[in-house]
């Protein structure tokens, strides 16, 4: 039986082979097993942004900040995703949050 971690690893390999769509599908399988699997949400944010699915990308990046509220990098990633999705005000807010953390 597959685990969220093994499905995540498969998704990364698929992504590296160039099939971003299939990588997202594999990450969705991982999240169906464990919706709190941070690595899958983090990768989903990046992959969905690359596919132009900006709302989904931001939703996954936001979920990472909810699961890891004390992790400065989580907010930095949210800032980058928002910036790449053209949501500058949200990007600046996330960057400010990241910068305010120790």
TrEMBL record:
InterPro entries: TPR-like_helical_dom_sf, TPR_rpt. Gene3D superfamilies: Tetratricopeptide repeat domain. SUPFAM superfamilies: TPR-like (SSF48452). Pfam families: TPR_8. It comes from the Bacteria. This is Tetratricopeptide repeat protein.
């Amino acid at each position: 039986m597959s685990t969220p971690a093994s499905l995540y690893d498969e998704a990364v390999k698929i992504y590296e082979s160039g099939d971003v769509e299939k990588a997202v599908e594999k990450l969705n399988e991982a999240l169906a097993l464990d919706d709190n699997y941070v690595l899958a949400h983090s990768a989903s944010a990046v992959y969905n942004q690359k596919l132009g699915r900006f709302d989904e990308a931001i939703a996954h990046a936001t979920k990472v900040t909810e699961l890891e509220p004390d992790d400065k990098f989580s907010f930095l990633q949210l800032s980058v995703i928002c910036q790449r999705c053209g949501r500058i005000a949200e990007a600046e807010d996330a960057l400010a949050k990241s910068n305010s953390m120790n």
